[in-house]
């Protein structure tokens, strides 16, 4: 679903030489492998994620004898910086969940070599991401959705990108810039509207938990409402909806 975001993110890294690159919050490794594919010969990519099962899945994808890519479990908000910092830091939606953002970004700054560059992708406003509002509104037809604190850990923590820019500046990073990428995302590639609705409700654990507590009738009602919404956006074999992503870049002085 998120692969279309890789292209603007990797372009923003400016991979103009063989670099040591770290992927922060790498998940199952999709972006890390794409970075390595596009990086100049001699580059290495190291993915980090706090979830062991995702790191195991990423490691399983490494071709035999390929030493240019590796994956490790780490909490990047607190993990000690390596003796040899990285030339590039990348993250596709992996920096919005730190418990202590000021400390976490100060720590990430130490992972970046002087003169090194970073590119982070974070979600723009919910109103500009109808794939999210569709799920929320469908769930709200079946259960009460409690309000969320805008600064709490979550996907839209940095929808107001100035908040993130301020934190990065406080961490000592420089040359800060934020540009919007707008495009369409497939909600489960190749899925029918009904299957895409199941995928989306499962992906949003907060909504799924509320619906599960409310019972099968609530879950079925939300699924039916979301299927109807997704059906209006089903084209070329997938549900495709608009998205807005902030691509935030900068350097370490």
TrEMBL record:
GO biological process terms, semicolon-separated: methylation
Any GO MF annotation of the entry: methyltransferase activity
Keyword Protein biosynthesis included in the entry's annotation: no
Boundaries of every Methyltransferase domain copy: 21-116
Gene3D superfamilies: Vaccinia Virus protein VP39 (3.40.50.150)
Highest taxon above the source species: Bacteria
One Pfam entry name: Methyltransf_25
Keyword Methyltransferase annotated: yes
Alphabetical list of InterPro entries matching this protein: Methyltransf_25 (IPR041698), SAM-dependent_MTases_sf (IPR029063)
Annotated keywords: Methyltransferase, Transferase
Protein name: Methyltransferase domain-containing protein
